[in-house]
Amino acid sequence: EADTALYQAKASGRNSVHFFESSMQVAVEARFDLEGELRHAVDREQLRLFLQPQVDAAGHIVGAEALLRWQHPSKGLISPAVFIPLAEETGLIVPVGQWVLNQACQILAGIAGRGQSLRISVNVSPRQFRQADFVASVREVLARTGVAPACLVLEITEGLVIEDLQHTIDKMHELKACGVRLSLDDFGTGYSSLTYLKRMPIDELKIDRSFVRDAPVNDNDAALVEVMLSVSRHFHLEVVAEGVETLDQLNFLKAHGCRCFQGYLLGRPMPAETFLSLMDDGSDQGRLSDLQTSGA
Ligand code: C2E
Ligand code: MG
Ligand code: MG
Ligand code: MG
């Protein structure tokens, strides 16, 4: 009896192991395909840089965040949430990040050429930041495109700061010496201490949308947002509130002294050409001043 039971357990175990292996293999192969394809995405010109407006309290576009998309030939538009982690793991983030930096500077050069001015924020992944030649590559792209360094904002995340604080700070100083601006993305979501702010040569904080979401209705989130705004005033940092979707959120943030906003309420990420035509025809200002009057 015992033998039979054991045999059955083994048999079904073997089956489930077999099933497990084959479904895992499918996942592994899918990942492998994507990785292989991502390797060629730059050469095959499948990457797209979307821009999402950042607006001031008067409704004027003052900047844009560059957000990457992958136009896959059969899978359609793939979100960076899917392929950035893969790119980071495999090291492909280095050429991909370089492409983004180059593309953003090309756009900035085009804008300057038309006598306009704007800031573009570029997300820099930890692995990209840690490359020994990262600062040199930033210098190179600025020199080649002739872009005013102050128009380029590099967004880094808290995670980077914790791993190797002194090294990160040294590198930030090198970047500041190039004239670019530094922004701390997703502020408040990581484990970094407020005391880091004192030591880091950053220009800007981005309040993560997880705090913005319920700030108008939740006392705790409201308090956290107020603290972030007051700390940034103290350290003379600019603040961008992320993920502003409603007028209540916008009005709450304005009432507490926030001056720069990014979110679906003000504009979704859009193809660069669409963004540039929006800047040209000024239709954004019509829409945003409508918001001003209907709000508050
Ligand atoms: P992030 O840097 O925090 O970018 C903001 C994300 O919030 C974007 O998602 C944006 O589309 C989304 N968002 C903006 N406004 C709203 C809103 O009102 N509501 C909601 N629900 N979401 C909003 P996206 O484009 O999917 O990018 C996700 C993340 O992928 C980014 O988060 C960033 O960490 C990373 N990423 C995107 N592009 C790049 C890139 O070129 N390089 C690197 N290293 N990372 C990138
Ligand atoms: Mg960002
Ligand atoms: Mg962010
Ligand atoms: Mg965020």
Automatic annotation (TrEMBL):
The portions of this protein that span the membrane are none
Highest taxon in the source lineage: Bacteria
Domain EAL residue range list = 31-283
- From the Swiss-Prot or TrEMBL record, give the protein name: cyclic-guanylate-specific phosphodiesterase
Q: Which organism is it from?
A: Thiorhodococcus mannitoliphagus
